[in-house]
Amino acid sequence: MSELIFEKSKHGCTGCSLTHLDVPQAEIDIPTRAGIGLPTLSEPEVVRHFTNLSRKNFALDIGFYPLGSCTMKYNPKVNEDMAALPGFAQLHPYQPDSSAQGALELLWELDRALCEITGMDRFTLQPAAGAHGELTGLFLIARYFQEKGQKRDIVLVPDSAHGTNPASAALAGCQVVVVRSDSRGGVDLEDLKAKLSDRVMALMLTNPNTLGLFDENILTIAELVHAVGGLLYYDGANLEGTCGYARPGDMGFDVVHVNLHKTFSTPHGGGGPGSGPVGVKEMLEPFLPVPVVTKKADGAFALDWERPQTIGMMRSFLGNFLVAVKAYTYILSLGGTGLRQMTADAVLNANYLLSLVKGTYELPYDRICKHEFVLSTHKFGQWGLKVTDVAKRLLDKGFHAPTIAFPLIVDGALMVEPTETESKGTLESFAKALLEIEEEARTHPELLKEAPRHTPVRRIDDVAANRSPVLRWK
Amino acid sequence: MRYFPLTPDDRVEMLGALGLSSTEDLFADIPAAIRIRQPFSIPALFEPEVVERLESLAAKNLNTKSTSSFLGGGIYRHYVPAAIKHLLMRAEFYTAYTPYQAEVSQGTLQAVFEYQTMICLLTGMEVANASMYDGATAVAEASLMARSITGRKRVLVAGSLHPQYRATLRTYLHLQGLELVEVPWDERGALDLSRVCAEEAACLIVQSPNFFGLVEEMSAAGQWIHAAGGIFVHAFAEAASLGLLPPSASFDADIACGEGQSLGMPPSYGGPGLGIFAAKEKYVRRMPGRLIGEALDADGQRAFTMVLATREQHIRREKATSNICSNQALCALNALIYLSLLGEEGFRQVAEQCYHKAHYLAERLQAVAGLKPTFAAPFFNEVAFTIPGSPQALNAYLLKHGILGGIALDRDYPGLANSWLVAATEMNSKEQIDALVARVAQWRGGLA
Ligand SMILES: Cc1ncc(COP(=O)(O)O)c(C=O)c1O
């Protein structure tokens, strides 16, 4: 079943059809290699191999994929068609600006739309994903303080933060200091005050946070951070929870990143490519990475490379441009009204689903949630079970599992994000499955321990796989 | 809205079940001072209007499919077999997330395992990761990995490394307190190690073929940096060259990294592409990014799963080897399918055709248009010419005649003010090349 493409290879086949060389052969005056060892198969064999591989994936178009923090919403088909237009996909980044006016206009318009949505003044679309956006944002903030002649080297992150936040802070050469969460799941103001100082460069915050809860103290938090001269960074992974109802720019955030591959419906592709545009308030605009799209007085668009205060480049060219095309398509399809309805439905779906399972599952912070919520599976411990067992049993019942074991502050966390593209019926069947699993855990815990049974492979032995890792076929 | 399954009745019923009277109640925790009451001004378009708007934007661009192009510089137009898009557009692949639940993600996991193997075959390296964002960030991460292996803070980088990769390196290294030293090139355009010192260097990063298209003498460079205990990084911006040139391992590279867009992806205005990253096995625990390994399931069947995650941000947080989370997974799958279709012979043929086309182009530009190559070192599929006049003027002239010319090197290399970099791939027909050459000759004639 799981034969590798290499094991299917046989001599004498080809899966491609290249035109003949129509120029004279030149003498090869560079060193050359012997064989590579690539497999050789015919086109139908390759197609069948990958089609069969695809059948071993669960995916959004197949069923409910409530992976918390990931916003697994429907990926509209029209987005894919637009990104495939030769007028976008076949553009070369070195072609003159005058020959790419439509692409530059799109980037400009997307920048404008994101500014309105987030309340920021200017965006860069260069960052390739959320984590890359974080790094970009921290570089911008560092540059800002460098210009002001201030030495600041501490980045505060809540204990509920995603792993990329501290990892990005470390990459930006900063020291990470963790701020505790309070009993309502928000930033503990007393702990924050204790950790604020003139060494603090930024506080990185997700709001709604990774518990799916809106931090009601956000204005106070912003005031406190700004009072010591620090800046506020917004991890936009959860923009879905407030989009159209509140803007990070109005909350006091100075730098934000948004995830086009979450809130703005571009597909995750099994892990990427994403896009993590970064928006800033005016005082940080001079530092944005180059190139920056500008609109000239005559209405023409151009790339501006001459920005003396820029942090430089975060990657090559203009970022994951085709992902931007998809997100722009989505924003036009929804418009302002649709974006607001999107959030309203996402939040309603989350609260409704929560109401169906709470009581049976422990809810560490019992409040109205935003687009997602986090349950604890702590009590499954009494039956010798862990959160992983719950997740695997869900697979057997035809659902993808929620995010598990994150955030770290909840024991056996089950983080559920339904999104607005699920029906009431789907939420109810998922809730039913969760309730059944709790009952099975009490009465037949082996059903969970031995799960999954109905998936392409059974439970995988990760411990053994890590002992002496095999990372390639030989 | 066609993407939202809730009906108005559903909404009322669900709010009722929650004991709420309106949607606004769901947002009562947002301070009134910052709560928005009105939708954004962005208009909503019907699907046909959206399509029309996007098509009209696309139509304003000159694209390399309908316009003959000799642009390279890290993004190349190669033939993409038709089967690829059909496989990539299988929703099972593109609408899945990162394979966190391995049992229902075997398609993605096995594909990445096969991709890792393909990259090992292309580079000769022992391990490859599941992808980085692009060539530039792959190189930046390589330098950080070299710092972590050696504990040293000097990074030597060839001045002929892609200017945007160097710019990215500069941004990444700045706050890490790492010193970036550029290694010059000699009059042949090749790396000149005689003017730098290898002592205390974390690594030497050399791109081959370099940004000028020239093939470097990699063995000598590797020995030079290894003698001083540094890490040798082979960077590349044209992955098709791996079909012809000796693999990274043959000159003892410790890390091989670069851009994989050439492996079946369209130019896409520069992204998404594919960051390739491979290394010697002994350094695997210091590698950035995701790794997929072979495993067994409870029934003893072969399966695949994420391994060595203790290097990654979700486990290690600020001590992680990198902050990368989402990567370029679908692009890795794209490269894998491309290499599977092309196979051993096809991929070699693409590389050879690139070589021959570029050499024909170079020969004609000299013989017919009288241009002089800027450098004498051997090249793969891209070559710089010093032209009598401004490359921008030449490009503008060519554009007027429907040709996307070459890259003017002066913005990134003020010392190469009159240099013009042209690339050819198997997609440039003899007819296109001859037409370009004729126009260049005409332009030259006009100057005289
Ligand atoms: C809260 C949060 N922050 C940051 C990230 C990282 O985003 P990306 O995977 O796009 O780099 C994620 C991704 O899951 C996240 O959930």
Concise summary:
Chain A has 15 helices and 12 strands. Chain A has 474 residues and is of the alpha/beta class. The longest helix of chain A has 37 residues, at 321-357.
Describe the structure.
The complex is a heterodimer of chains A (474) and B (448). Chain A has 474 residues and is an alpha/beta fold. Chain A has two domains: 77-332, Aspartate Aminotransferase, domain 2 (3-Layer(aba) Sandwich); 343-465, Alpha-Beta Complex (Aspartate Aminotransferase, domain 1). Chain A contains 15 helices and twelve strands. Chain A has helices at residues 5-8, 43-54, 77-83, 86-89, 101-118, 130-147, 164-171, 189-195, 218-227, 248-251, 321-357, 387-396, 424-443, 445-449, 462-467; strands at residues 122-124, 154-158, 175-179, 200-205, 231-236, 255-258, 278-280, 292-295, 301-304, 373-376, 403-404, 413-416. In chain A, strands 1-7-6-5-4-2-3 form a seven-stranded mixed beta sheet, sandwiched between helices. Chain A starts with a helix and ends in a 7-residue tail after the last helix. With 448 residues, chain B is α/β, with parallel strands linked by helices. Chain B folds into two domains: 68-79 and 343-447, Aspartate Aminotransferase, domain 1; 82-338, Aspartate Aminotransferase, domain 2. Chain B contains twelve helices and 15 strands. In chain B, the strands form four sheets. A seven-stranded mixed beta sheet of chain B has the order 2-8-7-6-5-3-4, sandwiched between helices. In chain B, β5, α8 (218-227) and β6 (231-236) form a beta-alpha-beta unit. In chain B, α3 (82-88) runs antiparallel to α10 (329-367) and α5 packs parallel to α10. The mean pLDDT of chain B is 97. The chains are: A alpha/beta (474), B alpha/beta (448). The complex binds pyridoxal-5'-phosphate (PLP). Pyridoxal-5'-phosphate binds at residues 69-70, 129-131, 162, 164, 206, 210, 235, 237, 259, 274, 276 of chain A.
